[in-house]
Design brief:
The chain is about 40% helix and about 20% strand. With about 400 residues, it is an alpha/beta fold. It has 2 domains: about 1-165, 2-Layer Sandwich (VC0802-like); about 175-390, HUPs (Rossmann fold), CATH 3.40.50. The chain has an 8-stranded mixed β-sheet.
Amino acid sequence: MEKIIIIKYAELNTKKDNINYFLSSLKENIKNSIGEYSIKYDRGRMFISDKSDNYDLILEKLKNIFGIHEINLGYKIDTNDIKEIESNLVSLLKEKTFKTFKVETKRSYKGYNMTSMEVSRYLGGVILKNIKGISVDVHNPEILVNIEIRLNESYIYFEKINGLGGYPVGTLGKGLLMLSGGIDSPVAGYLALKRGIRIEGVYFESPPHTSEAAKNKVINLCKILTKYSGYIKLHVINFTNIQESIYKNIPHDYLITIMRRMMYRISTRLANKFNSKVIINGESVGQVASQTLTSMKAINAVTNMPIIRPVACLDKLEIIDIAKKIGTYDTSILPYEDCCTIFVPEHPVINPDEKKCEEYESLIDYETLINEALKNCVIIKISDKNKEYEDVL
């Protein structure tokens, strides 16, 4: 009998002809996270074995990998003989303390000489005979005994750990995440990762109006997200000249609208240059003036790149709950202003007119300013494996 980790897929099973691509990607993501352990898989399950018995560490890392529905620490028996299953099961249960139990059996080998129900009934009787003071409870057992029977082996496991679900990161292409440093955009990034999108980030800094601490806050948010993605490349754009030009030349009620349009233009060019298929952001409908439907339409008009807004229909409390769950909340609420908040007018327009946007933008040489900002872009690669980050450009 060998201790082994059993991984179940759930949503990946719907992929049919493409399932091998998703499973090989999941295997690669797991290997990148946990290291060189023995990983085998088929269409039904993935199995990880470790001769050094380092299972606690492996389980902790598996909890943060998308594409996994359920994780079980179980035991493999190199036969499907019912007597071997029986003796090993009794041995395992004698080490546990419980009053009630239930046996559930699955057979991927349908040629087995007993049905799943018959195996469960038989093993239930064996357990009652060998362990005193216990009873069967089919509705709310203290311990659920899972038996899986295959062609040449069988598996026993008890407790389950819920996985994150979703698709393996990278299987659905790449997106560019607009990271402000607030609560919403890291949550949007997490939700995009869950759908299999590899994310790169873009952060707009505006020194001296924004501080180095504000940039480090965003880097730290990326670092937290790498727990789920392995690494993130962050594109840092110096937005000072663009922002100051907008502030000096454009009516103040349109400051945020025009600023966001410039950010979308820059993000679109970055996305095209680095092969991102979509732009992702943390906009939530109606939360601020630039996130009314009219504002979104006016801002969106400058790009033909698809925009994904994963938190668009969540309220603030729902977003905060996710931020706390994924570990970004405490960093997001640190009091460092980003360039979206430092020049907020007292009465920003909530129903901007697109023709007025174009008229006001003609007052500044924004193409030259955008080209300059892109030319001076700094890319930082942030990894979950190192405490430090590195400038790659």
